[in-house]
Structures are given as structure tokens and as C-alpha cells.
Amino acid sequence: MGRARRARKIAQAAAYGGGVGVAGLGALGALGYGILRVEAMMARRIVGQRFEGAPSDSGDYGSGSGAALRFVVLGDSTGVGMGADHPHQTIGATIANGIAAFSGRPVELTNVAVIGAESPGLDEQVERVLAAVPEPDVAVIMIGANDVTHRIDRSVAVRHLEMAVRSLREAGAEVVVGTCPDLGAIEPVPQPLRLLARRWSRDLAAAQTVAVVEAGGRAVSVGDLLSEAFSAEPHVMFSQDRFHPSPAGYARVAAALLPSVSAALDLFGERSTPTEPNLRRGESVGPLAVAATRAVTQPGTEVAPAEVGGQSRGAHGRWAVLLHRIRPTVPAPVHVGAAAQGAADDGAGVRPGTDGTAYAPVGTTDDTAHDTVGDAVLR
User: Fold this and answer.
1) Which are the catalytic amino acids?
2) Does 314 reside within a domain?
3) What per-residue confidence (pLDDT) applies to 347?
4) Is 289 a domain residue?
5) Within this chain, do residues 116 and 227 fall inside the same structural domain, yes or no?
6) Contact predicate 187/238, CB 8 Å
7) What residues make up the domain containing 270?
8) Is 58 inside a domain boundary?
9) CA 251 – CA 175 distance, rounded (Å)
10) Is residue 265 within 8 Å of 272, Cβ to Cβ?
11) pLDDT digits (tens, 9 = 90+) for 238-283
12) 244 and 355 housed in the same domain
């Protein structure tokens, strides 16, 4: 069965309360599952120990005229910012600062994400966030990794995510979901566990995408966004536990989400002047399940609701648009000598890191990347 069909099946089972097996383990067999248990124990020895807590990033960001934009974050440890050293290094804080800069308005961030959260835990998070912020303007949800590692039934996980998106949409919020990361990209995890983790992660991410778009939200593929950087500079892009992102890793994820959040808030007028998909970048409008399947293999890809001929659905279900928005530049590590470090200290365009490296701006890997952040967020 292809991933598109599996995604539709999982999403349909979620909608009707069915089940498709615990994290896809049904066809694996007892012997294979036993091997995986042993390798999972090996992986836990390789991957560092869990952190105790994470910085609290709830608060006010930016300044300007007008009422503050109400921004809420839900999800798991990536939403919390486990691995960040400072509240301003989290995904939520980075996006809040970006929204404030592009809108010219202050942003009030309320973060209710929970370390170790699984998708069923989103029910309680939605209740808490709507009690604190009854009418949020935009919400970001980061969820999925613990559903895979804890073997949560995928249809159950997807159903709770879809309910969370619908509840937030009913409260008036635009919703952007960072789908399940590709756990097969975590290099300390041995084979064949990595291969299976990749399949489970991508299947869940595709099903999440279908459910999120059906509920009126936007899904952004996190995928293996950090895998290449992890291979090149694991001590910089990942935190000391070798599993959660470092501040530089969170900046990369936030850069993938910020353009979609900005578009959801209509900061650049896309609602009044819709942009056509850029075929040169592989963007397109087509059946939702097909778009979801393509997105999981292309990190940073957005999938959102679309219409064809004024209709939201076709013969193959919901229409969706697949977009490769150009991302803002993010910090990347560069090793510097004494002279360059002096320039960094003088504010000459290089910001020193805490580990003897410095961070300099780098562009997106997209070949059609623009040089300005304004162009980056527009597309």
C-alpha cells in the first residue's frame, strides 16, 4: 500500500474512530518487534539523558502600534524548547519575534506545550490555552515524535490532532502544525530501527497533514530538516542529549514555520492577492493525500487547503496546495579565529556562540532563494 493510501486510511480511521494498529507494528511480527526492543534499549544508551525542564518563553515580544497579536504554542518538548538555553531561543519565541517584526505589532505568546506530550494530550492543552486566551490569532502545534516512540495508535493520534485543530479554528485561530519529525534521521539510533522509525514517522506525518488540512489548518513538514546539519555539526545543531535540537536547530525549524505563520496571518496580503503555485519550485495544487505524501520527503514544505474551479473537493477528495516557501536565513556554525572573533565582539556581522564557534547568517538551501527576508516570507 502506498503512503498516500495509508495516509487516507489512517485519517479516515481517525475520523470514524477506527484503528490501524499500534504505530504500524501489526505486520512486523513478534520476532521483529523483539529485535526492535533490544535496539531501542541500545539507542537509549547512545542518546543522552533527558533534560530537566526547559526555559519558559511565554510573554510579550516586539513593540509597535495596535493591539497585540495573540500567539499560542501547543505540543511536545520541541514546542516547549527542551535543549534551548534561553527563552528567546525557542521556536515559539523566534516566531513571535518574526511576527512582531513583519506586522509592526507586539505579540503575546502563550505556550502550553508539555515535555513528553503525545497527541491525546492535546485535548487538555487546548482547554488550558483557550481558558487563558479565548480568541487566539494564530496557533502553532508541534507533535508526533512521542506518538511514534511510545507506539500510540496512529489513528488515535491523528484524531486528537484533528480535534485540536478544529477547536482552535472554531475559536478564530489560524493553525499551523509542524508534523512529526523524521526519527530515522537521528544518527545514534541503529539500523534496522532507524529505517522503521523513518517509515513510521513519515506515515504519521502524511496522515497528520491530511487531518490538519481537512480541519482547516496548514501543515508544514519538519521531516529530516536537521539531518544534514546533524551529520556535519551534531554538536551545534543538536543539544547535549543528541536528540533534541540546540538553539541553532530550533532556529532552523522556526525558519521553516515562520513563512507559513506569516501567510496564515495574512501579513503580506495573500488573501486579497493569492499567489499561483511556482511550478519551477515543484509547487502544485492536487489531491490532498498526494500533496501530503510529497511533503513528508521535502522538509519545510507547506500543505494548505485549496480550491479548483471554486470547488474544495474533487473526485479524489480534498484539494490542497503544496508550497515551498523561501525561508528566512538562519544561524549556521562557522569556526572563527582570533581576528574573526574580535570582529564578532565588535558586532561586525558575526554573532559568537557559546561553544567556541560563531554564527553567521546563511541562506536556505532552495536554489531559488531570495536575498531579502521580505521576499523569503512572501514565498
Assistant:
1) 77, 241, 244
2) no
3) 35
4) no
5) yes
6) no
7) 3-276
8) yes
9) 20
10) no
11) 656 556 777 778 888 899 999 999 999 999 888 877 777 888 888 9
12) no
